[in-house]
Design goal:
single chain; 16 strands; 407 residues; alpha+beta; five-stranded mixed β-sheet; eight-stranded mixed β-sheet; Rossmann fold; BirA Bifunctional Protein, domain 2; 2 domains
């Protein structure tokens, strides 16, 4: 994933593990703040183990804003902590891979982020297993206004839970946001007709229908963004894995317009990760007005996806070479050869316990090494060693000087 991000022009940023609790209390919203591991430091300040990286990234950017030419493309690999009930795909401590792009006001930023996310997902073995759902919060707000919403925050929370609760429960939640029972039922029926999302070919009739109903100017601006984003995603080759879904709003308070999430194509279509645009977050840290967008991928959901498809790697990558020594007196020479192989770019290891040659060969097989290089066989000429292919058992003599050459 790091390699894919770098190919796309993103640079790695390291963030902190502990931040001021106020950072999340005012910048992330009630949901994240409620899940933080909160405690007081020796100065009696309220601090938290980092529950997400975007506020930290924004704070760091403000410190560097005058020295950072735009656009800024950063990725982070961070340990994250959430105080919540552990369950499949969610633990209290996990790793998160973030991509963030600052300084681009147009949806070209979202297109770049999604294209990069697709590339890194394909690189780790998830090709064909995922797709993206997209929406714009301005469209979601416009739909809410059409149906009579009064409490927008409560409405967004209800819509965010649409796919997770029965229809009757969803209708009850949007009624609490100000909709009449009839309007709540009509909204649930509308969402039911597009459950699972709208493919690019069917997008225009749906968006045009919303505009014709009187979506409002902010909502119409969201429609323009969606049209442009889907156009760009077609150009970068993602038309086969994107849908428009009006029920995607995401839970974080700082998202301002476009939002999206990746989901598993098979099974229950669960969300894998999400992201969106947060154009005003930098200003909350007293930085210059800076458009920004990003996404965050948790290791737990990605692991479940790959394991479910039988694509999870089986342990650590295998060794290229295991150096075996038949004569304990040549242990130093064996260690010298191991280092030479490593400096040549090969993964290599050898025995450090003085085991018998047969035990060493068993260890080489257990480590799934490609080959064994055997030192100290009496029948071999000086300056020569034996190379054994551990998958076929075929052996050949090899000049010591050629040991580090790649096969």
């Amino acid at each position: 994933m790091r390699a894919a991000a770098r190919r796309a022009g993103y640079s790695e940023l390291e963030g902190p593990c502990v931040e001021s609790f106020e950072l999340y209390q005012t910048k992330s919203g009630e949901g994240i703040a409620a899940e933080t591991w909160l405690f007081r430091d020796k100065g009696e300040r309220a601090v938290a183990l980092v529950p997400e990286t975007t506020p930290s990234l924004a704070r760091i950017f403000v410190d560097r804003a005058k020295a950072e030419p735009l656009p800024v493309k950063w990725f982070t690999v961070s340990k994250i902590w959430r105080y919540e009930e552990p369950q499949a795909g969610r633990t209290r401590e996990f790793l998160q891979f973030n991509l963030d792009l600052l300084g681009v006001a147009g949806v070209e930023a979202e297109a770049d982020l999604l294209a990069t996310a697709a590339m890194l997902l394909d690189d780790v073995g998830a090709a064909g297993l995922y797709a993206f759902r997209l929406n714009d919060r301005a469209i979601a707000e416009g739909i809410g206004r059409l149906f009579g919403v009064k409490d927008l925050g409560r409405f967004f929370r209800a819509v965010d839970r649409y796919a997770k609760v029965p229809p009757a429960e969803f209708e009850g939640e949007v009624v609490q946001a100000g909709l009449s029972p009839d309007a709540a039922r009509e909204l649930a029926d509308l969402f039911a007709t597009v459950r699972g999302g709208i493919a690019p070919a069917g997008l225009e009739p749906f968006l045009k229908g919303l505009e014709d109903r009187g979506l409002g100017e902010p909502g119409k601006a969201g429609v323009v963004r969606m049209r442009r984003l889907f156009e760009l995603l077609g150009k970068v080759g993602l038309s086969d894995r994107v849908v428009y879904d009006p029920t995607v709003v995401r839970g974080l308070a700082y998202y301002t317009s476009t939002v999206f999430e990746a989901y598993a194509r098979s099974g229950d279509g669960r969300a894998l990760f999400g992201g969106g645009r947060y154009d005003h977050l930098i200003e909350l840290f007293e930085g210059p007005p800076t458009p920004a967008a990003g996404l965050a991928i948790g290791d737990q959901t990605l692991e479940l996806l790959l394991k479910g498809a039988g694509r999870w790697p089986d342990g650590e990558p295998p060794l290229d070479t295991y150096v075996v020594v038949n004569d304990p007196a040549r242990m130093a020479e064996a260690m010298e050869l191991v280092q030479e192989l490593r400096r040549a770019g090969l993964s290599a290891d050898g025995d450090l316990l003085g085991r018998s040659m047969s035990r060493q060969l068993k260890e080489a097989a257990r480590r799934k090494a490609r080959r064994a290089l055997i030192l100290g066989l009496k029948e071999v000429a000086p300056g020569t060693l034996v190379e054994r292919d551990l998958s076929t058992g075929v052996q050949r003599e090899l000049p010591r000087s050629a040991a580090a050459r790649r096969a």
